[in-house]
Amino acid sequence: MNLARAVLSCLMASFFFASAQTLTDPLATSETLNLYAKLSKLSGKAYLVGHQDALAYGVKWKYEPGRSDVKDVTDDYPGLYGWEIGGIENAAALNLDSVPFDEMRSFIKQGYERGGVITISWHGDNPLTGKSAWDAAPGSVAAVLPGQTKHAVFVKQLDAVADFLGRLKGDQGEPIPVLFRPFHELTGGWFWWGTKGNTAEEYKALFRFTVDYLRNKRQLHNLIMVYNTSNGLKSKDNFLERYPGDEYVDLISFDAYQRGEPELSKSFAKSLDHDLSILGKVAKERKKIPAVGELGYNQIPDTRWFSKTLHPVFKKHQMAYVLFWRNAGFKAKENEMEYYVPYIGHPAAPDFRTYYQAPETLFQKEAAHLKLYQKD
Ligand code: BMA
What we know:
By secondary structure, the protein is α/β, with parallel strands linked by helices. It has helices spanning about 1-15, 30-40, 70-75, 100-115, 140-145, 150-165, 200-215, 235-240, 265-285, 305-315, 350-355, 365-370, and strands spanning about 45-50, 55-60, 60, 80-85, 115-120, 180, 225-230, 250-260, 290-295, 320-325, 330, 335-340, 360.
């Protein structure tokens, strides 16, 4: 832990120097600006470790105040909290994973007040077909662009998103900064905004319209915009094929999941290393902050996965954060277990504690020391 403290003080010292990256929203709130500046200083030295839905539920428990699987195992909360607002576009009371939006609002405030960072994704329904985000009907994106048949439906969806994001406030009434990651895994073909049946120009127009609408029309100035592809990147050009432009993106990322047998950990590490190299190069050239948007190995069948597969690769690269996906536990509908962080008693729990101790990984306590929302 002494080493961790040394890294932290070095980090704090470096905050005094101006950052190369600039937030794209010229009217961003001071908390948002400060967070962005500090995240840009993080990448390369240490990174925040996040968990999706951390405070809502874990494996074999739901809605126990103060609980989190990460906390059970490490005695600390994650440094980053991921939340998902799919369902908000239908004025639903619960999101698509059954988290009540009212609870989510209060969890977001808790994480922020503790000094943690908030990131939000949106698996919104397909405005063209009215079916789920996974309904990749060809022409879906074209249909929602200005002047097209489903534009009004889409704008109504965005209004619901803006209402939610605009109501996230801290104790002093200040808007809570959010790393917003809409239309994610954009290089995949499984979502309505994906590569199946939508051109690159259509995707760019969708992203730009969304940012302009939230920022200019709805006057939201607490957003840090995240561009997010899937993994298996072929080249910088491949990563940037659907990139909407430097003035619309603050943070660049990809999602990566290991699947199959633990024997595949070596090849997963190799491909993660490769993807992070591409991401790092783009980040440098474009002056954007790199991060891993979603990550995990369902049920963690490799008990040394965190320290032996992830850690050596992450150490070599720059990123502001990584977000482990949700500990859904048993999903009755699909008849399967889903979790990405070990729970107490899981065979990978000791390894996760080792990963926690590494100087490069920042969880809640260390994140709070960094005073991410304040200027030094
Ligand atoms: C997926 C799974 C699903 C979930 C979706 C949106 O990766 O976790 O169970 O509905 O994310 O959160």
